[in-house]
């Protein structure tokens, strides 16, 4: 007689354990970055006496408000830190939260792993709830760690706690947004795209709401606007963060309800049924790469184009303000935005920001190649007379060209904005300024190809590092007045302020050289390694 | 010896400490339908990945029609492949996937492709995201058979097909054979291998343990004999080739035959045989014998 032992069934605990395993590493990174940057900026704050009347002027200027958010409590380290890092950290946390939400729910389901999971007593809605529930803990940790780090560095507890709560609410909101879009769409990429659209629209609404007094109410509709409305270290309002938290809770509940109403593997929005074949761009691997890039490129162009159009529209107001208040030109320079007093300087400063989204775009496109390989979709292509180098070359060239299109769209959008307000930016200058970020974008391409060859699981992270990591590095280095050699590690330290100055060719060529080395080394690795196809 | 469609020499693949494929030397002649058998994890898929250049051999070499298998631009002009687990871009329709594969592939007979679409009853106007496992497999099978490439490498191509479609598959293999195409078929469906293959190779724990024609395999192995007699059965103990002898009642004798049946037949002829049933073992039984050895 054999005795059989059965493990006591704790399906919910097992689900939570599974979810925690999938998010713990990213959670650690996001928590460290948010808390660390906040503490560094607090510590690096210098109490230069600011003239109260000048501060009032600053707070009234629509361009400043549009670009940086409403400047409040800048005379305190805490207020300055919130103003300087609040939006950046909110976007970082929001992007991570929504990507993680779609990854651990729709991504796992799409890969077929949930079929096995849900063959037990667990329902789909239960699985979604448990996964989102575990993920929702992370923003709370991020908020708590940020508040703790700020308090530990010596700023007021109420403001720090409110700021931490706001960040937590933003994170929760985007966990819920990702959770809802993951129920709506069958594919993870569509869910990510729509969630990212919510973030970009929220950001633009915050900008417009801050910049145009009659549209100030728009901020109540935007998660990032609500975060700004809490005014930490100033009036410390609790209502906006409550609204944001309620919205997040409602969206969470919606995600759970939607999950209960659909089949495993299906979406709430039905996929198109039969349709005639669209056979354009199927003739070669390069054409096929173009075909798969077109849709994301259009979406990214709309987002980036709208953002830079808005920046163009406020250009004149901004430059006139800074010319009239040189004190703030110094402050802006300290915050990493030098030479905003002329339209060319303004354009140069903001075009440098363009490297971040375009660099991320390139990294995401090559990460899609890694994902296709991992999902074995490339197998049929590579069983055709197509060498790996040709496939990789096609994908890299198409991603690079798409990045150039994005850069050009941004250049033209900002020019169109400045032309509307007659700020006097030439179209040639606008394009030169935008194209100035090409070396940084190429660094991202080089890093992404390198990762595809040697570390295919980390293509997005490694590919985005030169732009996103370099940008954050520069923000920290500027905020803590780091020595030159530390600043020099960021590619942004080597971008000339085109169009207000001539392009810096030697550093640009060095960056292109490093990028080329990355491409070569990555191609060698990609040729040699075993494919997971 | 004719042209080799597929050849490997001392091909080995090591994943860390695991030797997935050990010194495989194999030669599949052009025009042959070759069955590649082995239990899960024996190294069948590893072999195919090496043949396709998707993985790099630790040592040894493989050729596709005398082209080095790592030179995929040339080698893949002469082959078509159906993976075990077909993954497609979910938003593309079946027709679009077939169009893509035809345009980058080694050349496709579109009339035959259309015929195959009909035969496999595939609705090509639906997005691949809505396809079942079997339908995704059909897409890859149609694309591969329609190429008329001289070598078809099929990795468990029918695991998701229903019996009707399985029949269509066998028919398509028959057409390929008639066209002089070589088929390299890795499969668990032993009845299917038995029905379509000329020769089989059996892989066990990364090693090739047997290569023979299906008929040879059977001959190499036991034939089961059951004979009834009108009188007393003869004593077959010690007769050359007779094994596993046992009586089934007073008049029936069962035994298995190894090698030549001549001695046993002579012994039987001296007695009064009422009925005799000679049954060859199925491939499945032969195969299970290999599994059994593996288990021991």
UniProtKB/TrEMBL annotation, chain B:
InterPro entries: AAA+_ATPase, ABC_transporter-like_ATP-bd, ABC_transporter_ATP-binding, P-loop_NTPase
Membrane topology of the entry: Peripheral membrane protein
Domain ABC transporter: 6-230
SMART domains: AAA
Main location: membrane
Transmembrane segments: none
Keyword Transport: yes
Location(s), subcellular: Cell membrane
Protein biosynthesis among keywords: no
Gene3D superfamilies: P-loop containing nucleotide triphosphate hydrolases
PROSITE patterns attached to this UniProt entry: ABC_TRANSPORTER_2
Keyword entries, A-Z: Antibiotic resistance, ATP-binding, Nucleotide-binding, Transport
Name of the featured protein: Iron-chelate-transporting ATPase
Species annotation: Micromonospora noduli
Lineage: Bacteria, Bacillati, Actinomycetota, Actinomycetes, Micromonosporales
